[in-house]
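Exercise 7. Given the components listed, write out the predicted structure of the assembled complex. Treat all entries as one system.
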Amino acid sequence: MLRVRNVWWIVALGALVLFPLIETNPTYTGIGVSALIFMGCATSWNMFSGYSGYVNLGSAVFYGVGAYTITLLADHLNVPGNGDLFWLVPVGGVAAMIVAVPVGLIALRVRRHTFVVITIAIFFVFQLSAINFSFTGGTSGLQLPLIPWLETNYNKPFYYAALAVVVFAVLLSVAVRRSRFGLQLLAIRDDEDRAAGLGVKVFAVKLVGFTMSAFVVGMGGAIYAIFIGQIYPQFVFDPIFDISIALMAIFGGLGTLTGPLLGALVLESTQQYLAIRFSNGSLYLILFGSLFLVIVLFVPQGIVVFLGDWRSRRRARRAEGARVVLGDAS
Amino acid sequence: MNGTAVLHSIIDGVLTGSVYALMATGLTLIFGVMNIINVAQGIFVILGAYLSYALSVHLGIDLFVGLLITIPTLFVVGIVVERLFLTRIKGPERVVMSILVTYAVSLVIEGILNLVFSTNYVELHAWYVNRSVKFLGIYLGYIYLLGFAMAVVLLAALYVMLYRTRFGTSVRASLADQTSAALVGINVRRVSTICFGIGIAVTAAGGMIYGATNAFNASSSYDLISRLLVIIVLGGMGSLGGALVAGIMMVTIEDLVGVVWGPVWSSLSFFLILVVVLSLRPQGLFGKRSVRVA
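Answer.
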């Protein structure tokens, strides 16, 4: 049975698949790659933080670990600059999962508010380590093998790789949401003590969710690294990434499926456009910060919920109107 | 490494740590009273430093005299930010929303500071900044001693205000339980606004010392906020005494590790202490055990 909602998903996917075939301007396809990377990351961030209520503001840790893993591996394994590089993307995700376990063991011991702060603190430690240790190349960063693709088609492989990650993230999110495990995450969000009282192994559930969400973010970081071709600590361990991901999910609708996708698509495209349009970094910061404030203050429940409310209000009004008309007739 | 160097790093750590404790106290006060994690605290410190910089470079006002202007200025800035943005935060995810709002505020301020002062690193200068006094065979910078004295005076003033005045009683009541405080007739809204102002005002003083002891630009705020957050988590979020102890302890240990193992490890030691302490006491050194909130 094909329901209307599923048709929309297929249409959206088709549009995303067709986009780089129709639009050949590398500036726009480049924005497309970034948007897809963020859509995948925001969806998987939401899969843990949106469902469980434990807001992770250190997800750039996973992103950076993914990016550094693929770069270091490509270097040590002498992977040539061709399609083989993409096979290492899931390895970046696995590395992020491996890092997520000890991070989660520490950070998930505390309740929500402190968790947020600890994830921020842990993020800065990773950024500092990437700057301070020598195997990461310090502030001068690391190079990936050059990719000798034609400039006109350069973005396409990255685009489809990122799209594959998005599809994976969405399917994973749906699977989690429909599973017993997903219900346990939601129960933790609603009332952790009661969930524990009802037999949910809260710590284990949180840790598994945290680790799972790290996988996709790590893959996102890996794709970003090969897309950019050179990584620096400040760019892959970027505090703006931490916040952007959370903002995208919240802007779209925390805990919803379409919210993070829409939020990431809209915000990342806008952000990239602003960054290109206002090459002056300071103006960009002011504009982005202001946009951000407006979103958080005026649409705190997210656009998906906001539009849903608006639609049901309109429907209610129409029904009201119909009743009035009927009343007049009688 | 020798005994003198270790002693030096300990004394330096205590002197610098007191300034961090001052800034962290502002942060933990804001969290305790308002349930707001103010991640803009770092950029407010830098704002304070730049204000002192502008006053001393353009008007020739001494750094410490300038505090008489910068502290009230930041108090007002804090109140304006609180009234304009933080009062609008609603909904159940208040803490998270507060982080996003204050982060957005800090991005805007960072952009403005970059526009006005450029991204070149600057340092505050005064006749006492590069002088030092010899004590027990070690040289102590005047600025560190003055900073310590200033932090002690301001923390003492804060203590007196919190524990010896009627307003302080209202603040502590709001820290303990907002609903009950409101029930006994405390205007929690007003207390919150003033506390936010105070929490921001102390950054003017901290920022001045920070600017005199470090070269800074607007992005130094990231380093600052990460340290301040670690300090308040360690001390126990919302605990004023905890912020004080943790601030001094963390900076001292960091300095000590820097001398003993090298500067690469000193920043990491910050994190390792956090890990060890939180494994033993998830609520922080002086934090209250989280109670069930319905």
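Discussion: The beta strands of chain A are 142-143, 230-231. The first strand of chain A starts at residue 142 and ends at 143.
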